[in-house]
Amino acid sequence: MQYHATTKAVSEKSPWLLILILVACSVRLTPEIIAYPIPIGYDVINYYIPVLTNFENHWSIVSTQFPLYVLILHFVSSITTLAPKILVPAAGILIYVLFSVSVYYLGRRLFKLDNSSSFFLSLFVIFQSSLLRTTWDLQKDMLALTAMFFAISLGLTSKDISRGIFFLVLGLCIVSVLSDRMYGLLFVATLIVYTIIKRTKKEIILSAVTSIIFSIAVAQGSVQIQSNVHIFSGAASNSYYNQIDLIFLFLVTSGILIPFGIIGFVNVRESILKIPLLLSFIGSFLWFIHPTFFAIIPDRWMIIFSIFLSVFSGYGIVILLWKRSAFGIKCKIFRMIVALVPFVIIGMLFAVSNSDRPISLFAPFHYYIGQFGPITMQANSISISASKSIISAISWVNQNTPQGSSIVIDKHWRGWTELELKNRSFFYYEDTTNLIARHQNYYILMSSSSSSFPNSGSAKVQLLHKEDGFLIYETLFNK
Question: What is the mean pLDDT of each run of 10 residues along the chain (479 residues)?
């Protein structure tokens, strides 16, 4: 009888999971297809693809930056010989699909929902703009979050688990904290707080082992962390962080979710998922206490908070939908579709609309929050149309400048330049001082819409070439 009951439960679950996987894959694949062959995602073009392409050259720096995910990609690339421009987007799609499954299991095990309600919860979360913004380029974050959710649903929501499941959960905890520094910190803090609440052997072992491993990883990257803190500790005195901008970001990413999130929050008895929600909220607003807390990157914490809040909001909506009178519609599935449609539209517009003519939730507030993320997913470090133009401009440089030349670029184009520039070196606009001091001739690649010109000292500057949206100058010193 127990075998038949288990078989029935699996058979009832399978169609929902299969549909969920197909939907999640389609959602994440669609923006990639629209942009093809240009990859989307700032870190995709400026970090993941260049690092995999020239792994040996980057390893000394990457090894200090929680390199687990990059090592996984490098291993897969080595055994499959897939080109980084194919592998990295494919990996992003796969992790997004796995994340959708992890949310489904949260619904089943943490919120005790049935299959259809868990399916709704997962769809609700994966269409949120904050999650789509994360999957756009923060693939390490997605892996860390996915492993965290699986660990919670498989092992931290049950009193008794088998030894095999325990070691699986421990492995997931380790993957989560080694994938990304911020999510690692959040998960370690969550496990510690949860252990203090529960005081059971399972939680004590998980939190102790995970904390030790995370501490070792942090010590390995201490130099990089100090550099980041130094950069962001001056944020209060520059234009990157502004209190009004941060408030707009919070309202745009979480405002519509808060009412439903409160309903979900107060109806969840298990505390494990409440802890990272509250911790990420604190991280989002520590700058209220003192501007030096800008160093913890509050915009990232706001995105993290929004993702956790979306889980509670989805659960809150499910609670409302359980009431037969909701929307005046008796059919539960139809009520779910009606509730989901607005969020699907908002999410898909963010995923597919042209960044030159954006139609997204972020678009009306771009003046305030544009520095924190993309206006749509149809971009990387620049728009898709500009990406095509910069490839053409760099190709012109390759064909019309001497080998060994120095090219000065915007630092946001470093990925494109590393991938496309042949037998030439590149520098950033901020680095021209050394070139000027040596009276070294160089070329400048600029956007035609740029409002300022890089410092060129006493050099003679002449325009050599105009590309669609880009200008190429030659800088010459009298020797």
Answer: 44 81 97 96 96 94 92 96 96 98 95 93 97 97 98 84 91 96 96 91 93 92 52 49 92 96 94 96 89 84 98 95 60 83 96 92 92 94 94 96 94 95 93 85 91 84 91 86
How many CA atoms does the CB half-sphere of 342 hold within 13 Å?
6
Distance CA 157, CA 425 (A): 53
For the chain, which residues make up each domain, given as ranges? 12-372, 384-476
Cα–Cα distance between 3 and 13 in angstroms, integer? 15
What does the block give as tokens for 402? 């001497």
pTM for this entry: 0.92
SS (H, E, C) 103-148: HHHHHHHCCCCCHHHHHHHHHHHHCCHHHHHHHHHCHHHHHHHHHH
Q: Tell me the three state secondary structure of residue 443.
A: strand
Neighbours of 94 (CB within 10 A): 16
H helices of 138-242, in order, are 139-155, 163-179, 181-198, 201-220, 222-233
